[in-house]
Amino acid sequence: MTRGIDVVRRTSRRPAARPSEPRDTPPAEAIEAAAFDLFARQGFQVTTVRDIMHACGLTQGALYNHFSSKEELLATIIRSTQAALERDLAAALGGVGDDPAAQLFAVVRAYTLRHTRKRVEAVVANREWEWLDAPRRQEIRASRRRVREVVMRILERGHAAGAFRALRRDGRDDVKIVAMAILNQCTDVAYWFNAAHDGWRAEDVADLHADLALRSVGAAPAAARGRADDTLAAE
């Protein structure tokens, strides 16, 4: 079973539209929204162009007025999701000073907020990108690497300043592994978070994950709390 189907199904944007229904949303946006929902619920490979166009109430040929193929549609929506995530992290860093603990708290909080508030988009971007062709995979892989390097640089600065404990194994710094562990923990939120069912606020989950990240490197969470912005980057 494709991971995330049952969880994401509970947060579908809308019931599938009939082709005859009127629509105010611009066609390209409607196609992207339907693709996000279907790719999250049943996966890229299983979803057909006909499924997407039926869900957004447009004729099948309308997709090709905006996207050259289903693969181009997938690349477009993942590219936009990754770009928004990178903007979120840049904004989070811009809202705090030079203190590594405050930076780590802000970045992890922003990353987690993106994965709680934009769950469907996050599931598709993190699970379906490997279906892209090689050049597009390289593009998305580069974006994912940049995100990881934001966290790695903060960890390195924190170690150098003595704010974070050394993360060593067999005499080696494991900064990359720690950064990946922190981000993977936050990424997983998209698969289970549901405020309506669980009673958690997105902000509370983001605070908790930011606290956990600080604790994992030996920093005091309370020193960094309250310095982060809740705003997501404009889509």
TrEMBL record:
Coiled coil: none
UniProt-listed SUPFAM superfamilies: Homeodomain-like, Tetracyclin repressor-like, C-terminal domain
Keyword ATP-binding: no
Region listing for Disordered, in residue ranges: 1-26
Keywords assigned: DNA-binding
HTH tetR-type domain residues: 25-85
InterPro entries to which the protein is assigned, alphabetical: DNA-bd_HTH_TetR-type_CS (IPR023772), Homeodomain-like_sf (IPR009057), HTH-type_TetR-like_transc_reg (IPR050109), HTH_TetR (IPR001647), KstR2_TetR_C (IPR041490), Tet_transcr_reg_TetR-rel_C_sf (IPR036271)
DNA-binding region location: 48-67
Protein name: TetR/AcrR family transcriptional regulator
Organism of origin: Vineibacter terrae
